[in-house]
Amino acid sequence: MSAQDTIFYFFSAVLILSALGVITFRNPVYAALLLVLAFFSAAGIWLLLEAEFLAIALVLVYVGAVMVLFLFVVMMLDINLDKLREGFWKWFPFGALIAVVIAVEIGLVMMGDQFKQIIPLQPKASDYSNTKELGRLIYTEYVYVFELAAVVLLVAMVAAIALTLRHRTDKKSPNPSSQVKVKRNDRIRMVSMAPETKE
Predict the structure, then answer these.
(1) Is 50 left (phi over 0), alpha (psi -120 to 50) or beta?
(2) Half-sphere exposure at residue 69, Cβ-oriented, CA atoms within 13 angstroms
(3) Left if phi > 0, otherwise alpha if psi is -120 to 50, otherwise beta: which for 44?
(4) Are 68 and 39 in contact (CB under 8 A)?
(5) Quick one: pLDDT band at residue 116, thresholds 50, 70, 90?
(6) CA dist 101 to 7, 12, 90, 141, Å?
(7) What is the DSSP string of 30-97?
(8) Among 50, 45, 57, 47, which Cα is nearest to 16's?
(9) For the whole model, what pTM was predicted?
(10) How many angstroms separate the CA atoms of 28 and 39, rounded?
(11) What is the distance between the alpha carbons of residues 74 and 76, in angstroms, rounded to a whole number?
(12) Average pLDDT of the segment spanning 42-64
């Protein structure tokens, strides 16, 4: 077994264990931190496949932005963990069925012809850029899929904004026009009070 295979199995084991920890840990902060570890492990596997751009994008976008924001939100919100665990056993059979279906699908894919012959990575030229190659594939062969993914993300963003935008009746907000019209006598009121005397 070569050093590259050892590193691959190490990153794969860390990725699988951290992914299992994400769904089994009850504390959401620990689950978020394990998800960060899973992203780093996946980035390491991308580096082994000589896809440096995808590895850096995974770390910068997901770990550096999405997961940090999610971690701050989880830590700032007062989440009732007991309420989150109430429906676990109710939906456990359905979740187990979905997990079995996904495991069978992965097994069928791995028993296919494309997994019987492992093709080693060919050395690339010194001027090869995987970022340039990825951009060429996205904007030529997969341009329709890329545009469809952009439309789906736009619809999801608009739906999230529409769901969270609520007009509350008990909300108090300042009115700038009325604040500007306030005069000096309206801001301060002088009150004359008699001094209190101690007996």
Answers:
(1) left
(2) 6
(3) alpha
(4) no
(5) low
(6) 30, 22, 19, 31
(7) HHHHHHHHHHHHHHHHHHHTT-HHHHHHIIIIIIIIIIHHHHHHHHHS---HHHHTTTHHHHHHHHHH
(8) 45
(9) 0.60
(10) 16
(11) 6
(12) 87
Is the CA virtual torsion 5, 11, 17, 20 positive or negative? negative
Q: What six digits make up the tokens of 187?
A: 């801001």
73-104 per-position pLDDT tens digit: 777 766 666 666 666 778 788 888 998 999 89
CA 21/CA 28 separation, integer angstroms: 11
Instruction: Determine whether 12 is exposed, middle or buried from the number of CB atoms within 10 Å of its CB (0-12, 13-18, 19+).
Output: middle
Q: Over the Cα atoms of the chain, what is R_g? A: 28
The one-letter amino acid at 172? K
What pLDDT digit, counting tens, does each position of 137-165 carry? Answer: 888 999 999 999 999 999 998 988 887 77
Residue written as token pair 């008699």: 194
